[in-house]
């Protein structure tokens, strides 16, 4: 695992020339460096080009997360520029269709989850989104069925007014999916999980699901992948369980890695107060006295998946004067970024 991690991070440095600027990993604003302004070749088009650049920049700033399938088969959030000030549920779903509008903004190494020709209508009532698909929806491969359920559910539940997603075809409710017969029941929520990794689980009854974020990479840079693991029910709180899963990392055969080394340890239970969780680690959370952007962001993304967690404070041996990888003190609790994976396209 450690060799693979070094390979990924080395590639990112070469490809991005600086993770924060070129890859758009930024806690304060979305996609800051994604949209380099283009200068028109002809003098007569300068004003038009400026206007287009301004509109495109606004679209990216108001970017929307959609869940796509990466080259390894994982369902991954990607922030794309949808040409509207505020994307709607109906509009976002169109970006999940192969050969649809997503074709113009598709990140390198990713593909859409719904078959070409899929059309749908969406109705949202009492925090439930009911999607009525046309028959073309049923033309997916069996191995994509779980990915479709996850991608659609996680894409729509980013909207504050959607907590559950139901599926229909031609107005008829689906209790199971049409191809591989995956059960849907009364609808799906984020609690149903994403990118399941139960490879090291031997006792499902005495474990519980927890979502943590590992790293992967493509030609556009590094990106973060949510994975549902099963953590032991052994008296450990869910926040500690999430951190432990990150430290445990992925199997050496996996395409994903964790930026937390195996000798990283929590020096006590996480403390949660007013939405801010404080984590006290040993010195191994840092390298040369600095905590990496990848470590910090993996922690923040993973822990803010937990109920009531909005921000994260990292301490080292009880001290809060932790340096980021630029050598600057992290003086404020770190919030979850508004959008995930803004820089891999």
The largest sheet, given as strand count, sense and whether it forms a barrel, is:
4 strands, mixed
Mean pLDDT: 84
SS summary, helix count: 7
Secondary structure tally: strands: 12
Low-confidence stretches: 1-61
Q: Find the structural class using helix and strand composition.
A: alpha+beta
User: Taking Cα atoms only, what radius of gyration do you get, to the nearest Å?
Assistant: 21 Å
Q: Order of strands in the sheet with the most strands?
A: 3-4-5-6
**Beta fraction:** 15-25%
Shape: globular
In percent, how helical is the residue content?
10-25%
Distance between the termini: 26 Å
Order of helices and strands: HHHEEHEEHEEEEHEEHEE
Summary keywords:
345 residues; alpha+beta; 4-stranded mixed beta sheet; 7 helices; 12 strands; 21% strand; globular; disordered N terminus
Can you put this structure into words, describing what you see?
With 345 residues, the chain is α+β, with helices and mostly antiparallel strands. It contains seven helices and twelve strands. A hairpin with a 2-residue loop joins strand 3 (120-125) and strand 4. Helix 6 packs antiparallel against helix 7 (293-303). It is globular.
């Amino acid at each position: 695992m450690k060799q693979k991690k070094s390979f990924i991070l080395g590639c990112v440095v070469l490809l991005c020339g600086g993770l924060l600027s070129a890859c758009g990993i930024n806690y304060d604003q979305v996609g800051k460096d994604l949209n380099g302004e283009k200068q028109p070749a002809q003098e007569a088009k300068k004003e038009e080009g400026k206007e287009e650049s301004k509109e495109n920049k606004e679209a990216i700033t108001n970017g929307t997360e959609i869940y796509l399938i990466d080259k390894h088969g994982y369902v991954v959030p990607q922030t794309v520029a949808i040409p509207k000030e505020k994307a709607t549920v109906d509009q976002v779903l169109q970006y999940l269709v192969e050969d649809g509008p997503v074709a113009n903004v598709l990140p390198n190494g990713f593909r859409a989850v719904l078959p070409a020709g899929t059309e749908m209508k969406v109705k949202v009532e009492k925090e439930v989104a009911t999607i009525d698909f046309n028959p073309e929806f049923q033309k997916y491969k069996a191995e994509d069925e779980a990915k479709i359920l996850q991608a659609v559910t996680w894409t729509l539940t980013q909207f504050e007014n959607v907590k559950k997603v139901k599926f229909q075809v031609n107005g008829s409710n689906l209790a199971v999916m049409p191809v591989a017969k995956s059960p849907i029941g009364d609808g799906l929520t984020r609690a149903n999980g994403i990118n399941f990794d139960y490879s090291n689980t031997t006792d499902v009854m005495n474990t519980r699901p927890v979502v943590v974020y590992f790293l992967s990479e493509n030609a556009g840079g590094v990106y973060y992948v949510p994975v549902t693991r099963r953590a032991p029910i052994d008296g450990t709180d869910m926040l500690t369980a999430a951190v432990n899963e990150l430290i445990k990392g992925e199997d050496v055969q996996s395409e994903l890695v964790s930026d937390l080394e195996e000798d990283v340890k929590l020096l006590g239970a996480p403390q949660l107060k007013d939405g801010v969780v404080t984590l006290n680690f040993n010195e191994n959370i840092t390298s040369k006295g600095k905590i990496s952007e990848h470590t910090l962001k993996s922690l923040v993304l993973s822990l803010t998946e937990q109920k009531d967690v909005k921000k994260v404070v990292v301490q080292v041996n009880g001290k809060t004067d932790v340096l980021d990888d630029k050598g600057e003190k992290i003086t404020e609790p770190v919030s979850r970024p508004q959008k995930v994976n803004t820089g891999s396209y």
